[in-house]
Design brief:
Blueprint (H helix, E strand, L loop, with lengths): L14 H14 L6 H14 L4 H12 L4 H14 L23 H27 L8 H10 L9 E10 L3 E2 L1 H10 L9 E8 L2 E6 L5 H15 L5 E6 L3 E3 L1 H4 L4 H11 L9 H17 L4 E5 L8 H14 L2 E6 L12 H6 L5 E4 L3 H13 L1
Parallel strand pairs: 4-5, 4-7, 7-8, 8-9
Antiparallel strand pairs: 1-3, 2-3, 5-6
């Protein structure tokens, strides 16, 4: 049996959708499957071919598993997802299901069942609330999978800026031209006075995300946050900073977050590498910023401030950025930790040119960041 035969033969089950679904199920089972591993898995399966079930099995184990503890979970998810056991082995004997009989008297246990259901709902709500305040770097694979679902609860809003043209309003200043035109239509007879006020338009938001090695524990969550902004259709532009600058707005426009992260991972060539913040910010300003992308925008920099080169260069580029932007927000994942002091040379050089210095280590911090950007 092939992988294509493991799911119903319908047009909605494309091979890449089946394989990505398997990777997500494996992540939900507790295996640390990242976006770059998903991309490597798709490339490996394409190399061995879908018609080779043994090759598909070993390609997934080689690319998605990172420790011997993941192998048993991989076999279980593989059998459940594809309806197959490991290629070349006999299927395991399934244990007979155990049936639980409920009492026929509806009144005898209804109160207890309602109390147990209420306790379960309360426990789930409490667990989600605790997860919102947990440091992302300390989460396990299963907790990260639950955290990914919480990004759908974020409601990002673009900040507003004054528009050039006024709009009709119920109050404000007198719109003399509209008032006179209305009187001319009335043959000079007096009529109601028209009012106008200056309208507003959404302000552009630019996200610069550090994906270097020191930021790798937070990179997946930060890109999910960027996808939450980009997928809403707001005027948002997203770049990654590492050893080079990469424009990733287009792949993050996809609705499905997992597909968007896989596409973004295939676009970024310097994932978990070094960092050159000064050169990255300079490249953004020289190629995009001065042409208009940063003018009047809210620029959000996600980084811990570790700079390989001279910190004075980063300070100079942040000064240039501050001149162009409406507001500069720096998000540091260590900002929300107890006892943190901004002593890194990059942060010290950038602080004089930053309007808001906020935390970015948890879902609760992301919710506060959304409000900071909306009020900018």
């Amino acid at each position: 049996m092939t992988v294509a035969a493991a799911v119903p033969a319908t047009p909605s089950h494309a091979p890449d959708a089946v394989l990505l679904g398997f990777a997500r199920a494996l992540r939900s089972a507790g295996v640390a499957v990242t976006a770059d591993r998903e991309r490597t898995y798709l490339e490996a399966v394409a190399a061995v071919g879908l018609m080779n079930p043994s090759g598909v099995y070993w390609a997934g184990q080689a690319t998605l598993c990172s420790s011997p503890a993941d192998l048993e979970r991989y076999d279980q998810v593989y059998a459940a997802w594809f309806g197959l056991e490991r290629a070349g082995t006999r299927p395991r004997q399934e244990a007979s299901p155990t049936l639980t009989m409920a009492p026929l008297d509806a009144d005898s246990g209804s109160g207890q069942a309602q109390e147990e259901e209420a306790d379960a709902i309360h426990a789930q709500a409490s667990a989600a609330e605790v997860l919102r305040h947990r440091d992302i770097a300390t989460l396990g694979s299963a907790e990260r999978a639950r955290l990914a679902a919480l990004f759908a609860t974020l409601r990002p809003r673009a900040p507003r800026r004054p528009a050039h043209r006024p709009t009709p309003a119920a109050r404000g200043i007198v719109d003399a031209r509209r008032t006179l035109r209305d009187q001319l239509r009335r043959m000079g007879e007096p009529g109601p006075i028209a009012w106008r006020r200056r309208g507003t338009r959404p302000r552009r938001v630019v996200l610069l995300i550090d994906v270097s090695g020191s930021m790798s524990p937070y990179a997946d969550a930060l890109l999910r946050l960027a996808h939450t902004y980009a997928a809403t259709g707001l005027p948002v532009e997203v770049f990654t900073l590492g050893t080079r600058l990469t424009h990733v707005t287009r792949p993050l426009r996809q609705r499905d977050p997992e597909r968007a992260l896989v596409a973004c991972g295939s676009t970024v060539p310097d994932w978990s590498g070094g960092t050159r913040l000064a050169q990255g910010v300079k490249a953004f300003l020289d190629r995009w910023g001065r042409r208009g992308m940063a003018r009047g925008a809210v620029v959000v920099v996600f980084s811990d401030g570790w700079e390989r080169e001279a910190p004075e260069a980063l300070g100079e580029q942040m000064r240039r950025l501050r001149v162009l932007a409406h507001r500069v927000v720096w998000v540091n994942p260590h900002r929300g930790k107890e006892g943190y002091q901004p002593v890194q040379q990059g942060i010290v050089a950038a602080l004089p040119h930053i309007d808001d210095f906020v935390a970015g280590h948890s879902m609760a911090a992301f919710e506060e960041l959304v409000e900071v950007v909306a009020r900018a």
